[in-house]
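User: Predict the complex with S-adenosylmethionine.
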Amino acid sequence: MQALRTDEEIREVNTRYHDVAAAGYDFKWGIDFGKVGQAQVLRKLRKLVGPELDRGYGRALEIGAGTGYFSLNLLQTGVVEHATCTDISPGMVSTLGANARRLGLEVKTVRADAESLPFADHSFDLVIGHAVLHHLPDLGRAFSELHRVLAPGGRIAFAGEPSRLGDRLAAWPKRGAAAMAPVWRALIGAAGVPSAASPGSTDSFDHGLERCVDIHAFAPEDLERHARRAGFTDIGVRGEELVASWFGWFNRALEATADPDDVPMWWRQYAFHGYLLLQRLDERVLEPLLPPAIFYNLLLTARKE
Ligand SMILES: C[S@@+](CC[C@H](N)C(=O)[O-])C[C@H]1O[C@@H](n2cnc3c(N)ncnc32)[C@H](O)[C@@H]1O
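Assistant: Here is the predicted structure with S-adenosylmethionine placed in the model:
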């Protein structure tokens, strides 16, 4: 995480980085809008809100919506009736619009900075986000905007935020993968990729800016504090994914060293299904037992009175 620039520069770099990432984003992160994706999103929200999920929400706002992972899956499950999806990156907003059209879903898309939302007070019953808070330079401003646009009784629900300790622990499988990569490539018969991609390619652009857009990793109490300061009550923070994240990062780090065309389908299937299996193990055994800080991702919910 780099403390290198002004808030304005951070927003500008986030916009550029995500504009470039938008077209290949769903493939890169394995984002699914079918049954698997829907079940994943529902599981995350249920961990936060419990049985309230079954009552559903009328008007939902998503910040940093990207290509629509959260909102488009929630619309399909019927948990959300009307969705407004915002993002600072025009490229992401346009990819989300295309995904919604392909899925036959109606959604309002708006290009907006999460710290300055172009909506009237009390406009929404639910405000959600996935993997977005850690990109926002001024979290105090963002949380007070979330509070302002929520109707009384409304709720925020965020998932996929990097935990400081979880992030440190995940460095180990990444290092292990770097050491194992030559053997792994020989086993699957894959050619390696040069460590620095050619200048001007999307990859070199990605690698240069990735470190600059991820500006926070959180301890559970950081998220709690931001929510409390903005006036929220009923605040809950949970952790999710431990062994699943180690498995995922190990495989992802291996794959990053190979020509994608050489990675066989059986490997991709193994990595995908193994990850889903370990997610269950985390959820059923480790998440109820261990403190949130140790997990790779943090989830936050809170209510506006
Ligand atoms: C890691 S991506 C997550 C996208 C999506 N929520 C998902 O889970 O697939 C982070 C998203 O936050 C957006 N973002 C970054 N800074 C933002 C800001 N200040 N306001 C609104 N969105 C922002 C990025 O453009 C990007 O689409």
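Strands lie at 57-62, 80-87, 108-111, 124-130, 150-162, 233-240, 297-303.
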